[in-house]
Amino acid sequence: MVIYKVDRLSRSLLDFSRILELFEMHHVSFVSVTQLFNTANSMGRLMLNVLLSFAQFEREIILERTWDKIAAARRKGTWVGGMPLLGYDVDPKGSKLVVNKLEAKRICSIFDLYLNHRSLISVIAELDQRQWNHNVWTTRSGTERGGKPFTKASLHKLLTNVTYIGKVRYKSEVHDGAHAAIIDTEVWQRVQSTIPRNGRTGGVEVRDKFGAMLKGLLRCASCDAGMTPSHATKGGATDDGAPGANPSDQLLTPREQCRVIQMLVEWVDYDGNKGTLAVTFHPEGIRNIGDEVAVCEEANKGELVLCQPLKFGLNCNCICTTDFQSVGGNLCRRTGSPSYPKIEP
């Protein structure tokens, strides 16, 4: 094998030693055109190792200088390259982002949609219906990229990107950017405070197609294993073994129904051999629900009240079906007539 310089083959001492070992196994010799050394003796191998050590040192120095330059540019708030963001165009002069007015309106609408739905999946469905995709750009080589539909990961990345509030991020550091902001800081902070809660609760809707509200609570007493819902389909009809819908269930959303069950029931043991069912309730379950009902009763006066449970939408999901309009923080104002469901222990 003929090479121009030793460092053209590799600038890693470890990698080169492995390549050299592979060459020896297959009886392959290599020659450098501009560097004279003989690997047949110890002095030649020493010179080879010295040359490779300097080559590796040079590579690491170049890498450190490159990262230092990128870090300095980020701290100045300049654009250092990469894929163009939706809502911005790259300045032809370089090192700066320019707001794309048409795409900026779309970015504002996406943030508003999330604040309304409080669910990534619901926002993605709305974006698909509007046929809003990622921006499309053309590389210097003429290749067209982008234009794909939004996913949960890409939407989450967009909603948490500090670039839209006029900032730039470098590792764990956030600095003021040289570009204009698209999203107001207050709106961005509201989205950031909602996203972690969205991940823990699963969003607005309950992802339970069978309506099994005891999922995760019901266990088999014989084998001490959790029980999962199932269904059978016959003649186009689906039988999941559940009784008919209770009219009182319509008073609460599916999310609230599951939340109430979780507050009341600690676990359920079913013994198939004996045909018995044992339900263990939370000691403070009834009291906690009573506290929430008391909060709703205070809202009858039309005064501002503190919203105790989590809010999954624009309206407060209290135990009652009264609509509460959020007025900032955890404060809500009643906007409808209360209707309390009947709760039996």
Your description of this structure?
This protein is α+β, with helices and mostly antiparallel strands. It contains 9 helices and 17 strands. The strands form 7 sheets. It has a 4-stranded mixed beta sheet with strand order 10-9-13-14. A hairpin with a 2-residue loop joins strand 7 and strand 8 (173-176). It is extended and about 90 Å long.
Q: Would you summarize the structure shown here?
A:
The chain is 37% helix and 17% strand.
Query: Helices and strands, in N-to-C order?
Result: EHHEHEEHHEEHEEHEEEEHEEHEEE
How would you classify the helix and strand content by structural class?
alpha+beta
Number of E-type strands: 17
Distance between the termini: 84 Å
Total helices: the number is: 9
- Note the overall shape: extended
Strand order of the largest sheet: 10-9-13-14
Radius of gyration: 32 Å
Whole-number average pLDDT? 75
Which runs of at least 5 residues are low in confidence (pLDDT < 50)?
Answer: 242-250, 302-345
Report on the biggest sheet.
4 strands, mixed
Percent of residues in helices: 25-40%
Task: Classify the beta-strand content into a percent band.
Answer: 15-25%
Draw up the topology in text.
Elements: E1 2-3, H1 6-9, H2 13-25, E2 31-32, H3 42-75, E3 88-90, E4 97-99, H4 101-117, H5 120-130, E5 136-138, E6 144-146, H6 152-159, E7 167-170, E8 173-176, H7 185-201, E9 218-220, E10 225-226, E11 232-234, E12 237-239, H8 254-264, E13 265-271, E14 276-281, H9 285-298, E15 305-306, E16 324-326, E17 331-334
Helix pairs in contact: 4-5
